[in-house]
Amino acid sequence: MLEQLVISTLNGVIYGMLLFMLASGLTLIFGMMGVLNLAHAAMYMLGAYLGYQISKTLGFLPALVLAPLALGVGGALLERYGLRRVHQHGHVSELLFTFGVAFMIQEAVQMIWGRIGVPYRIPAALDFPLFRLFDTPYPFYRVFVLALAVAIFFGLFAALSRTRTGLIIRAALTHPGMVGMLGHDVPRVFMLVFGAGAGLAGLAGVIGGPIFVTSPSMAGALGAILFTVVVIGGLGSLPGALLASLLVGLVQTFAVVMDVSLDDVFRVAGLGTASASFLGDIRHTTIAQIAPILPYLMLLVMLVVRPRGLFGSRDV
Predict the structure, then answer these.
(1) Which of 142, 213, 224, 257 counts the most CB atoms within 10 A of its CB?
(2) In whole angstroms, what is the distance from residue 83 CA to residue 198 CA?
């Protein structure tokens, strides 16, 4: 029991930190710019495929640099020559534009790499057990993911709150007219923010691809959860995105190993299964079976109780 608790906690934290790597970029774009970037998960998928392709020829470490850089440059160009023209027409136009970009990325990936997943594996240099927990070896790569995500959080937080560039970015997002009158190029700031968010999505793809299956369906598997994390944490809040990512990661990780149903609860309470007969087949449903919908239940509760999220400064 203790072994399962410790290992599930570690796995939940690491899964949550991987979600944070994705959510941090979406926080910059969606929370701070107010852009509904439905292509963010597709950029994550493209980062995984680029990481796979580059690692085949140059190695994993060059892929860790080149793939996010390519996504960052591509994201900046997308904002400059596409999204900026659409932005003036409102959020609906932004949503349709980014949805179209996501669809194009999805189709391009399937045309180039096929509809079946690719064998993107953990590099041999990082594929070894770091320590043992209750006679169970724990892989170094998962701890590497955790350390990289923590470094990203502190790096972004310091850049946005302690540097002159970060102050200009935050000011441009709330008072763009005043920042422009001070001589700063506000459209260029937005372009850099969007590019940085796309680069973070690409980095998460390179890191997460070897852990999860790298396939065309990976964008759909995480896309909705990302928006859930950002809204729960609060729009534009990096600490909120971090906490929400950890909460979602831990909840889902623990839920999938809990084979407990309402029948079991009534039995332990001494009420018998007849007391739950009015629930029908629902009483046989286990927590593990409803694990995929738990993040969305958390989202609904958050929207009712605190619409601005955990650390958000404005309502959704």
Answers:
(1) 142
(2) 13
Residue labelled with tokens 């407990």: 260
Q: How far apart are the C-alpha atoms of 134 and 240, rounded to whole Å? A: 33
Q: Provide the strand spans (E) within the chain.
A: 129-133, 136-139
- Report the distance separating Cα 224 and Cα 105, nearest Å: 17
| CB-based burial, 38-52: b 16+ in 10 Å, e otherwise | bbbbbbbbbbbbbbb
Residue 96 domain boundaries? 2-223
Amino acid, single-letter form, for residue 255? A
Please report whether residue 314 resides in a domain.
no
Residue 266: predicted pLDDT:
60
The string of pLDDT tens digits covering residues 154-209 is 888 888 777 777 777 767 666 767 777 777 777 788 888 899 999 999 999 999 98
End-to-end Cα distance, the chain: 40
For the stretch 48-70, pLDDT in tens is: 999 999 999 999 999 999 999 99
DSSP 3-state assignment of 121?
coil
Examine residue 235 and state whether it is found in any structural domain, yes or no: no
* Residue 139 backbone dihedrals phi, psi, to 5 degrees: -70, 145
Query: If you write DSSP's letter for every residue of 194-252 in order, what string do you get?
Result: HHHHHHHHHHHHHHHTTTS-BSTTHHHHHHHHHHHHHHHH-TT-HHHHHHHHHHHHHHH
Number of domains the chain is built from = 1
Residue 176 lies in a domain: yes
How deeply is 8 buried, as exposed, middle or buried, from its count of CB atoms within 10 A (0-12, 13-18, 19+)? Answer: middle
Distances (CA, A) of 6 to 83, 137, 206: 45, 13, 27
| Rounded Cα–Cα distance for residues 114 and 108 (Å) | 9
Asked whether the whole model's pTM tops 0.85, one would answer yes
* 269 found inside a domain: no
Per DSSP, the three-state class of 115 is coil
Q: Which tokens belong to 43?
A: 């950029």
Q: How far apart are CA 120 and CA 48, in angstroms?
A: 8
